[in-house]
Amino acid sequence: MTYSIIANNKLKDKEILYNFRKEMVFKYYEIKSYRKTASEFGVNVKTVIKWVKRYQCMGLAGLIDLPRSPKLVRNKLSQQKADLIVKLRKITGFGARRLKREFTLPMSSGAIGNIRRK
What we know:
118 residues, 0% strand
């Protein structure tokens, strides 16, 4: 089974993927060549480099997939601003663009619309 089939499978088995990466890294240490390891496992050289570096930094735990979701949403509006928009909407009945224009709100009309819809 090739790496691309395993990695791109939506219902991927984490253990199979982990074992494949582990074999690849150990093979690299055996032959000391990124290119030969890549050709033997049917992957790109950059893939071998990535997993060897992760192994060097984190050990076997580095071969497990890292979460892809962001830990912090930086541009999320505060609850106070959201409450203000809801309050202004109830009082005036204005849409997002008009709320932004009339009250010179610092956020985009799209953000105001999203809050209004929620």
